[in-house]
């Protein structure tokens, strides 16, 4: 949509005596400051004959409406960091399909394709993880969603009722992909036990202003969400030329990521080498769409999954059956459907107990790294512009099975020692012996240098198989294996994390 707005003023005869500046065109803007806005900053806006719409809490900015001729003067004030148009974002609308395949082919196929059922069989279903859907709202009465719905906010009307009134039920469809209940009816989501929060920033007809989207993400920060899905977008072409006009949104996305939230967004359906905002930001996982054959999604003769160097992951996005308002279901296609597959995957991975490996107080970067590292490579080897690191794969990312081969070597015992670092949780250990006389296993928590003995076992036969279990209470624990026996004797060790 056009960035510039025109204010049409009906001039009645009785109004002709008003001062000329009464007819000045106004513009919706976001004013950024060098510090958090207080009375001084608000008075600057009022002094420029502005009306304040919203004072933001996590970025140094005020949303306001100002006379156009005042904007240039306001920019000259040393307290002002920037003034940008409060541009209007749109939902990334589903594309019209060329044809519709049989229902048997499409029912929850995306959830299966990314291995969500395998993760669920391991006990990882997103339980306890809070997912904010920044969108058009949610039909929280839907039988597949009501048990997982936990609340939200309507920033369009500033009420506590974020019901989805969009004609295509955009937000409700996204919600079902993420967390429709596994209740024997309808569809099932990627994370069927995750908690859903509706952050309504789009009206039924008018889209959503950037400051409203910013406010929605601020709400997610304040309410300690774990994951944010953003199936929304603005032209990546504009961002590549004028990145500064998106600074308020970029700042709040960066702030959310720093707060430990995993942000996921759709790349767009424009079939161009340009990624929509906010997916183009470094703090956000940009998700492209794939079809049932793991190929780049082509929605019709015009629309296809947008691509570019910023694409990080790919996920199913064609003929996705999910929930719609009124208790029903519908097939929709687009990157808006791909993004929630990854948001749900992030919730599942968080519920698996993935640790804060770098100790920075956030697990968002570990989730991102695990999803990237375990993705199924598609297209050119490694990261490419169509699929990023590949198709998200929960079967691989929740497979916490580790294998070690340990061998008794000549020389000091430490030359034969092997170690592995594990997250908190319970594990089974299977040891297949090949000639060792004894195997000692000790643990060290974090950087502690004092070893806590876990167990040590002797073998009664050279080919014996032993099974044991161990519970690790530290956020991360290193297990150290030391073999005893003849030179060349060995053992194969399989360590599997047990479902909670």
From TrEMBL:
Q: Which residues form the Peptidase S8/S53 domain?
A: 126-390
Keywords, in A-Z order: Hydrolase, Metal-binding, Protease, Serine protease, Signal
PROSITE patterns the record matches: SUBTILASE, SUBTILASE_ASP, SUBTILASE_HIS, SUBTILASE_SER
Q: Which terms does the UniProt entry file under GO BP?
A: proteolysis
Supply the SUPFAM superfamilies for this chain: Protease propeptides/inhibitors, Subtilisin-like
Q: Which residues form the signal peptide?
A: 1-24
Q: Does the keyword Protease apply?
A: yes
Answer yes or no on keyword Glycoprotein: no
Q: Which GO terms describe its molecular function?
A: metal ion binding; serine-type endopeptidase activity
Q: Where is the active site?
A: 135 (charge relay system), 170 (charge relay system), 336 (charge relay system)
- What family does the entry list? Belongs to the peptidase S8 family.
Name of the protein described by the UniProt record: Serine protease, subtilase family
Q: Which organism is it from?
A: Geobacter metallireducens (strain ATCC 53774 / DSM 7210 / GS-15)
């Amino acid at each position: 949509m056009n960035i510039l707005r025109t204010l049409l003023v009906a001039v009645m005869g009785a109004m002709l005596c008003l001062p000329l500046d009464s007819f000045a065109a106004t513009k919706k803007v976001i004013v950024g400051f060098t510090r958090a806005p207080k009375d001084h900053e608000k008075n600057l806006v009022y002094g420029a004959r502005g009306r304040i719409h919203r004072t933001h809490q996590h970025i140094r900015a005020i949303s306001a409406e100002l006379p156009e001729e005042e904007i240039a003067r306001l920019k000259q004030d040393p307290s002002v960091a920037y003034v940008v148009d409060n541009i209007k974002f749109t939902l990334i609308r589903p594309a019209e399909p060329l044809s519709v395949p049989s229902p048997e082919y499409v029912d929850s196929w995306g959830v299966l394709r990314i291995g969500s059922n395998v993760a669920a069989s391991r006990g990882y279903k997103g339980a306890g993880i809070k997912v904010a859907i920044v969108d058009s709202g949610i039909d929280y009465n839907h039988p597949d969603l009501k048990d997982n719905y936990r609340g939200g906010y309507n920033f369009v009307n500033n009420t506590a009722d974020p019901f989805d009134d969009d004609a295509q039920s955009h937000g409700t469809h996204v919600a079902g992909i993420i967390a429709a209940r596994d209740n024997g009816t309808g569809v099932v989501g990627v994370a069927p036990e995750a908690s859903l929060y509706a952050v309504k920033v789009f009206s039924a007809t008018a889209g959503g202003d950037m400051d409203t989207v910013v406010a929605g993400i601020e709400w997610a920060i304040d309410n300690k969400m774990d994951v944010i899905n953003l199936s929304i977008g603005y032209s990546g072409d504009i961002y590549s030329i004028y990145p500064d006009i998106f600074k308020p949104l970029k700042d709040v996305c960066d702030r959310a990521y720093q707060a430990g939230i995993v942000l996921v967004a759709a790349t767009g359906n424009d079939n161009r080498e340009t990624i929509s905002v906010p997916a183009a930001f470094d703090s956000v996982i940009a998700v492209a769409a794939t079809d049932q054959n793991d190929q780049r999604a082509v929605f019709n003769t015009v629309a296809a999954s947008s691509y570019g160097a910023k694409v990080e992951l790919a996920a199913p996005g064609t003929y996705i059956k999910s929930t719609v308002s009124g208790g029903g279901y519908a097939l929709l296609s687009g990157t808006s459907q791909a993004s929630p597959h990854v948001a749900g995957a992030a919730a599942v991975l968080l519920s698996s107990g993935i640790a804060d490996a770098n100790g920075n107080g956030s697990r968002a970067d570990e989730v991102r790294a695990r999803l990237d590292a375990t993705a199924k490579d598609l297209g050119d080897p490694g990261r490419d512009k169509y699929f990023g690191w590949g198709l998200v794969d929960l079967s691989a990312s929740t497979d916490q099975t580790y294998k070690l081969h340990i061998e008794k070597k000549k020389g000091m015992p430490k030359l034969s020692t092997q170690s592995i670092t594990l997250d908190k949780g319970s594990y089974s250990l299977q040891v297949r012996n090949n000639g060792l006389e004894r195997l000692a296993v000790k643990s060290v928590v974090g950087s502690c240098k004092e070893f806590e003995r876990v167990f040590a076992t002797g073998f009664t036969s050279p080919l014996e198989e032993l099974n044991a279990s161990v519970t690790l209470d530290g956020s991360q624990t290193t297990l150290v294996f030391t073999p005893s026996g003849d030179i060349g004797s060995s053992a194969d060790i399989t360590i599997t994390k047990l479902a909670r």
